[in-house]
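Below is a filled-in request sheet from our internal design queue. Each sheet records the structural input a requester submitted and the sequence that came back. We keep these sheets so that new team members can see what a complete request looks like end to end.

REQUESTER: design group, bay 2
PRIORITY: normal
MODE: inverse folding
CHAIN LENGTH: 219
BACKBONE (tokenized):
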């Protein structure tokens, strides 16, 4: 009987947390502790610790590309010059919302839109989060508009329950394998996790606690 492979992770925010939990499960692992959720700067400050932890244990670190680089490869090199064997450092192009839009059918149904309105190339969008808000603005569902679209004059880029609605979509509707067909960076993330899980299972090592040096990291 295959043993469960626990994968710890670090993310920018709570929407990303829901995404990586589903991603790990879809890849055949079990989500462990999820660190971060306070933005990209924190992850950059701690990436060496996460990479060090991944010398022995599977880790997933997910960040948005945003406009920090033209494409993912130079961005990855800037963050992690020598990735540990059990680190999946993955970059959502350009934001995790592009991965969610890649399952156009279920997103259209969730937002109350026609399927054709959803962008066909979500990873080509300059600002996927803004596009998601604009889609919500066109929704036939009043509750979606109220929750996801910022109130005029608020100064906020998203509505008051934007994150809650996105998490609801991820957990209950988003089809990860379907989305991977239209989001290459998501497809690569799944492949990386499956490789790490396969390698970890092949080690056939006894269960043991997470190393003390890692537990004491100030995350």
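RETURNED SEQUENCE:
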């Amino acid at each position: 009987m295959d043993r469960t492979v626990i994968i710890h992770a670090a993310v920018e925010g709570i929407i990303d947390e829901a995404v990586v939990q589903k991603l790990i499960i879809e890849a055949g692992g079990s989500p462990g502790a999820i660190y971060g959720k306070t933005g990209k700067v924190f992850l950059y400050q701690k990436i060496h610790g996460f990479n060090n932890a991944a010398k022995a244990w599977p880790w997933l670190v997910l960040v948005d590309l945003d406009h920090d680089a033209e494409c993912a490869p130079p961005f990855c090199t800037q963050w992690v010059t020598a990735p540990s064997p059990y680190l999946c450092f993955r970059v959502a192009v350009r934001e995790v919302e592009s991965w969610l839009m890649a399952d156009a059918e279920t997103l259209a149904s969730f937002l109350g839109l026609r399927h054709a309105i959803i962008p066909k190339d979500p990873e080509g969008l300059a600002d996927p989060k803004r596009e998601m808000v604009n889609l919500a603005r066109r929704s036939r569902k009043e509750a979606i508009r109220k929750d996801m679209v910022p109130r005029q004059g608020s100064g906020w880029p998203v509505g008051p329950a934007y994150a809650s609605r996105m998490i609801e979509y991820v957990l209950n509707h988003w089809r990860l394998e379907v989305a991977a067909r239209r989001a290459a960076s998501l497809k690569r993330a799944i492949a990386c996790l499956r490789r790490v899980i396969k390698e970890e299972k092949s080690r056939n090592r006894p269960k043991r606690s997470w190393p003390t040096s890692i537990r004491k990291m100030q995350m």
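SHEET NOTES:
- Confidence is low (pLDDT under 50) at residues 211-216.
- The chain has eleven helices and four strands.
FILED BY: M.R.
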